[in-house]
């Protein structure tokens, strides 16, 4: 076992479970929350639940610690970033499409008023 600041078992395990599986699921959850016009607070709560699932995968497949507060927080912060990026990406498209008379998309994560 090679413990690191961000990973408990190995860097490849962290990348696979937390970033690819957890981050991908978080991105899709962020998109779903944005599509249903829910709040960022609800998204954060969903990420707490997903954080427990990610911790369980670390434990069940790679012999990580199930009840590790530190590594739970690390996993939670990483998936929270992916979730909010997914939410913001989707919300930018929604605003630009639904309110096209007033807003235009400004990059992948933003929008701006027309005429400015």
Distance between termini?
A: 55 Å
Point out poorly predicted stretches. Answer: none
| Overall mean confidence score, pLDDT | 92
Shape: elongated
Assembly type of the chains comes to single chain
Helix count from the secondary structure assignment: 3
Rg calc: 17 Å
Estimate what percentage of residues fall within beta strands: 5-15%
Instruction: Give the strand line-up of the largest sheet.
Output: 1-2
Residue share in helix: 55-70%
Order of helices and strands: HHHEE
Judged by helices, strands and strand pairing, the structural class is: mainly alpha
In a nutshell, what does this entry contain?
Helices cover 67% and strands 5% of the residues.
Describe this entry's structure for a reader.
The protein has 116 residues and is mainly α. Helix content is 67%, strand content 5%. The protein has three helices and two strands. The protein has helices at 11-35, 40-62, 69-98; strands spanning 103-105, 111-113. The protein has a two-stranded antiparallel sheet with strand order 1-2. Helix 1 packs parallel to helix 3 and helix 2 crosses helix 3. The protein is elongated. It starts with 10 loop residues before the first helix and ends with a strand. The mean pLDDT is 92.
């Amino acid at each position: 076992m090679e413990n690191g600041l961000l990973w408990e078992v190995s860097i490849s395990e962290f990348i696979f479970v937390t970033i690819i599986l957890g981050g991908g699921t978080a991105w899709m959850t962020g998109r779903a929350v944005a599509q249903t016009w829910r709040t960022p607070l609800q998204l954060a709560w969903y990420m707490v639940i997903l954080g427990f699932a990610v911790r369980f995968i670390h434990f069940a497949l790679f012999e990580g610690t199930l009840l590790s507060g530190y590594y739970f927080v690390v996993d939670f912060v990483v998936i929270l970033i992916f979730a909010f990026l997914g939410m913001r990406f989707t919300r930018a498209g929604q605003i630009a499409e639904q309110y096209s008379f007033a807003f235009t998309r400004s990059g992948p994560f933003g929008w701006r008023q027309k005429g400015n």
